[in-house]
Design goal:
Blueprint (H helix, E strand, L loop, with lengths): L13 E12 L9 E3 L3 E6 L2 E2 L2 E6 L2 E7 L2 E2 L1 E6 L13 E4 L2 E3 L7 E11 L3 E16 L18 E7 L2 E3 L2 E4 L1 E5 L5 H12 L11 H8 L2
Antiparallel strand pairs: 1-2, 1-11, 3-8, 4-7, 5-6, 8-13, 9-10, 11-12, 12-13, 12-16, 14-15
Length: 217
C-alpha cells in the first residue's frame, strides 16, 4: 500500500488573479449574443449561499437532514465598466450623453479568468474560466471623494444575484468552471473562440449544454 506524502514537487497548487473579464447582456430570448470586454476589473468575490441542513426529528431522534437549495451570488469590483453595463446597473440612455437612473435592470452573463499556479511553473501553470449565468446586479453605493495629496481612483462595486438555468442531466446551475489544465486543448480553444470571438465568430456566451458539447472530444 502506498504511503501518503505531502507537498511533493509540482503538487503545491494555488490560484491567483482575475482577468479576461467579459460582459454579455442577456436578450429577450434568454441568450447572451454579444460579449464586450470588461476593462479595469479588480475583483470578483464568489458568495454562494443556502445548502444548509434542515434537521427533522421523529421517535425522539434526528430522523433526517434535508439540504436547502444552494444559490450562487458574487460581488464585482472595477475601476470602470463597459457602456453596455449601464442598463444592467439600472440606467437608460435618454439622449446622447444623458442617462436616467432607477430604470429596469437587465440580466447579464459574466466570464472571467483566474490563474492556476504551482511551485514549479509559478503563476503560468494554467487558468480557470468562470462562466456565470442569469446575473442581476443590485443597487450599490458609490463614494466620490475630493482629490488630495494621496489621490485614489474610485473603485465601483456591485452585488450580484443569479437565477440558475437548465443543464441536461444536472440540476439547474448559474456557474460553470473550466480548468485549462484538465480540459482537452482543442476543445478548450473552440470554447474560447466562442467566448472571446475571432475574425469570423462574434463573442457570445454559450449556454451550459452548448459548453458541454464544445468540450466533449
Amino acid at each position: 500500500m502506498a504511503i501518503l506524502t505531502w507537498d511533493g514537487t509540482g503538487l503545491r497548487f494555488f490560484e491567483t488573479g482575475v482577468d479576461h473579464g467579459v460582459l454579455y447582456v442577456m436578450d429577450s430570448n434568454g441568450a447572451y449574443p454579444l460579449g464586450v470586454p470588461w476593462n479595469g476589473l479588480t475583483n470578483v468575490t464568489e458568495s454562494p449561499s443556502g445548502a444548509e441542513p434542515q434537521p427533522f426529528y421523529a421517535d425522539n431522534i434526528k430522523y433526517l437532514n434535508i439540504m436547502s437549495a444552494e444559490e450562487f451570488g458574487c460581488s464585482i469590483n472595477a475601476y470602470t465598466y463597459p457602456d453596455e453595463w449601464v442598463e444592467c446597473d439600472g440606467q437608460k440612455s435618454v439622449v446622447t450623453g444623458l442617462v436616467a437612473g432607477q430604470q429596469a435592470r437587465k440580466q447579464f452573463g459574466l466570464v472571467y479568468r483566474t490563474k492556476i499556479g504551482n511551485d514549479v511553473a509559478g503563476q503560468e501553470l494554467g487558468y480557470k474560466l468562470h462562466l456565470i449565468y442569469g446575473c442581476l446586479a443590485a443597487p450599490s453605493e458609490k463614494a466620490f471623494a475630493t482629490v488630495n495629496d494621496s489621490p485614489e481612483a474610485v473603485e465601483f462595486s456591485w452585488d450580484v444575484s443569479t437565477t440558475p438555468i437548465n443543464m441536461t442531466g444536472f440540476k439547474p446551475t448559474a456557474a460553470l468552471v473550466v480548468d485549462s489544465t484538465k480540459a482537452p486543448a482543442t476543445q478548450l480553444a473552440a470554447l474560447e473562440d466562442e467566448l472571446f470571438g475571432t475574425a469570423i465568430i462574434t463573442a457570445h456566451l454559450p449556454l451550459p449544454d452548448a459548453v458541454v458539447t464544445l468540450l466533449t472530444p
